[in-house]
Amino acid sequence: MSLPDFIKKFTVPCNFGDQSIPFSIYIGEPKPDVHPVYHQDSWLAKERGGSIPIKIKNSLEKLYDLAQKNGVLFSDLCVYAITVSTHNNAKPNDSDSK
Hints:
Layout: E1 8-16, E2 19-27, H1 38-48, H2 54-70, H3 74-90
Antiparallel strand pairs: 1-2
Helix pairs in contact: 2-3
């Protein structure tokens, strides 16, 4: 199945009881009055007994607000944020290089 360009697939750690397990979520252009992953989180709870962690939901909500304020696609901003985060986490620590 090919996704439209504005929908991106992300794998995030989701809570299943006392375990954190990678699970795919899809980011597109949500309706303004609904949390960006509300429907997926609801489905995950009902069908699989899991949940998207609040920290991830809060981060996505902030990114959505930022995308709206700056007139960019929410999914593109999520890709950018993940890329920057991954790049920053991959940099060697200054204290390690001395």
